[in-house]
Request: fold
Amino acid sequence: MNYRHHFHAANFADVLKHATLLRLVAGLQAKEKGFLYLDSHAGRGGYDLTAAATGTTREREAEWPNGLGRIWGRRDLPPELQAYVEAVRVFDQTTRTASGGGKAEGDFPRFYPGSPWLAQAALRVQDRALLCERQPDEAAALADSFRGVRRCSVQAMDGYTAVRAYLPPPERRALVLIDPPFEAADEWTNVITALREGLARLPGGTFAVWYPLTARARVDAFYRQLLALSKLPPCYTVELLIAGDGAALKVWGCGLLVINPPWGSARPLDAMARWLAPVLAQGDGAAGGVHWLVPEV
Ligand SMILES: C[S@@+](CC[C@H](N)C(=O)[O-])C[C@H]1O[C@@H](n2cnc3c(N)ncnc32)[C@H](O)[C@@H]1O
Reply:
């Protein structure tokens, strides 16, 4: 596997994923009781956007200018995106201070938090995080950056195994983010298996799965496999299409499947995705919104 998140950091998919993640964390925190945040495919934790064009291997066009770059500095953001942009600003400033500065491009941030740091910054004292990453270099960087951080542990391991191994947590509450690279042909099947096993272990757990929109038929098949799971709890998808599915783009959109969503999260995420669609559009047919697969009763 050659996947490195560096190229993709802060692209349109990260904007949707990370703003949604923060909304889900806030939703779980409506209850006082602590929970486990389990990040099964955590990446390296944070990214230097000035290196995003080179990643770790070869040159490639950075993707953040068409993602975070289009909303940074806007004053008309919906509340979910305000919270997200503010979290990025804090991470950028803290990391610059810790690393002795560093210039960004213009007024843009230089350092971008991945899901581990975004979630960690939002956790309360009664919450904790478990971050799993299988790729050895990324796992080492993640462990390095989280060394000494309280209530956070890093495991260099397969994220699907972690879902089996760490659920149910002692807290009996969890938010599980499953964010695979979707490079392997069996990724979709692995996700379904992990959801089946995770829900069997913690039926009330909140599971969020990021997925790419490259072929509508592939995603429809995923929904069918999902709906075939027995006792599937309430779930919705929040999707963002930056172009229609006939577009020349390889990835013309993405979505998050959210199982057992926190109460009241669908409406603001729907508004956020609708707002993002024209702003992040890269072709005709951009659209966004929430669609319930199994409605709340
Ligand atoms: C999309 S990136 C994660 C980005 C991160 N969640 C974020 O939002 O900042 C996917 C990561 O999963 C890692 N990975 C791939 N297969 C894995 C597996 N089976 N278990 C754990 N990590 C895996 C890759 O090395 C990569 O770092």
User: Anything to note?
Assistant: The domain at 5-291 is CATH 3.40.50.150 (Rossmann fold). Residues 79-98 form the longest helix (20 residues).
